[in-house]
Structures are given as structure tokens and as C-alpha cells.
């Protein structure tokens, strides 16, 4: 079989495909589903007993917000990258909030280590 015959045979049975919804719409749908799952986990497992107190701690609130923003931006970037015409630069979208989140975790580790002191670590 010649290549031209193969291409002509494959092209003769082509049916139109349904376009994907925009990445923002698909990411929003996925995030709604993830929110429902997290809500059900909170209902079944319960939330932290000290959540009201912890939310007054700026470091905890910043880490919580940065992790949430990283997840949302990563979901959008994943759905944007699922389209073949999109640039690979979308991979960098969650990077700033990821850096903020990781630096906050490092800061919390450092302040914990300073409060305990090097002699308290064994």
C-alpha cells in the first residue's frame, strides 16, 4: 500500500471532532469538583480544632493562601497546556506562588529551629 492511498483511505472516514471547552472553564469545573471532595473530607474527618486560632497567625494564613493559589494556577496551567497550540511557558504560571509557599515553609522551619535552639535538636 502506498502512503498516498493510506492517507486517502484514512481521510475518507474523517468525522468532525467536538472542540474542547476553554481551559478556564475546564479548570473551574475541576476546581469545583475538588472543592466538593475537600468539603466531604472535612465533613467526614473534621477540621482542625484550633483553626480559628491558626487563621490569626499571618505565617499560617500566608502558607494556606499560597498553597491554594499554587493549586489553582497549576490546574489552569495544566488545562491550558492540554491544547497543542499553547506555549510551554504556561508551565511557569504557578511558579511565583510555589516559591512564596516554599519560602514560607522554610521561614517557619527557621523560626521553629531558632525558638528551640540548636541544643534542643538531637
Short description:
With 122 residues, this protein is an all-alpha fold. It is 68% helix and 0% strand. The protein starts with a helix and ends in a 6-residue tail after the last helix.
From the structure above, extract its key features.
0% strand; 5 helices; elongated; mainly alpha; single chain; 122 residues; 68% helix
What does this structure look like?
The chain is built from 5 helices and no strands. The chain has a domain at 20-41 and 51-113. It is elongated. The protein starts with a helix and ends in a 6-residue tail after the last helix. It has 122 residues and is mostly helical. The model has no long low-confidence stretch (mean pLDDT 90). The longest helix is centred in the middle third of the chain and has 24 residues, at 58-81.
Main sheet characteristics: none
What string, H for helix and E for strand, traces the elements in order?
A: HHHHH
Span between N and C termini?
73 Å
Whole-number radius of gyration?
23 Å
Percentage of residues in helical conformation? 55-70%
Low-confidence stretches: none
**Could you tell me the strand content as a percent range?**
under 5%
Shape: elongated
Content-based structural category: mainly alpha
The tally of strands reads 0
Mean pLDDT: 90
Number of helices: 5
